[in-house]
Amino acid sequence: MTAEAAIHELTRLDVIARVGMAARGIVYVIIGYLVFDSGRHADEGQTGAFAALAEVPMGWILLVLVAAGLFAYAVYRLATALFDADRNGTDAMGIINRIGHAGVALTYFVLSYLAAEIAMGLRHVGQESEDGTSRMLAEQLLDMPLGPILLGLVGIGFLVSLVLNVKNALLGKHMKHCAANAPGFVAQAGRFGMFTQAAIAGMIGWSMLRAAWFESSRQAVGMGGAIEGIRSQALLYNAIAFGLMLFGAFSLMQARWRIVPKIDVVEEAKDKAGAAKEKIDAVREEAKAG
């Protein structure tokens, strides 16, 4: 394989997506294990999983690979938002889904950056540091005009995510982009994992609404804080741990069976940029003619 062909393979969306899904799966399996184990980093969410990886021998190498994988997943979700690679369309629901994908992309770009920082020893991990990200967002929104309303909308967004995850799990829509020959256990793992994601989104969304209502950023929590908040409810706590592991397993299985277009993201981006430039030039020409 020539160097040019190798680069082309690395910029194909299906390759990027599978690497990203595998990395996401590894992170969620570790989070679920840590919650089950109830040991150190158990309630620190994604950053706790990064810290756990960093502590094993040569773990920084694994963490660098995970950071690269999460970056790949962010690129994949950005592509589904900008290029409509998931074929969501341009109707109202399609636009909402694509905006949601853009938000997911931003989240995973941040997670990739955090993983890289932890790998290089530039960041100390703790639940407070993870919840601090949510609280910093809440504080910045509260400082804006109509800040409580904006923060409330963020909370509502998480609650909408809860509803959509439950709906997709119940109707089997989480398998929409998986190959028809995927084993039945993939759907079942994904269904329980989606319910777990919905529960966590609900807890985070509720904390954002409380932060907006009381105009206090300290009410806002991230995944780690949400999990910590149910520690005393043993049945629910263990169900969440099991669900996180299943969601991770589902993500790993998606890396094998998800159907992703084999488009070159670099070429697609160039085409989109060229089309946008042509439209801008056309508008300028019309303005001059007018």
From TrEMBL:
The residue ranges crossing the membrane are: 15-36, 56-76, 96-116, 146-166, 192-214, 234-253
**Pfam families for the chain:** DUF1206
Under InterPro entries, the record lists: DUF1206
- Key words of the record: Membrane, Transmembrane, Transmembrane helix
Domain (DUF1206) spans: 19-83, 99-169, 192-258
What this protein is called in its record is Uncharacterized protein DUF1206
**What species was this sequence derived from?**
Novosphingobium kunmingense
Lineage, broadest ranks? Bacteria, Pseudomonadati, Pseudomonadota, Alphaproteobacteria, Sphingomonadales
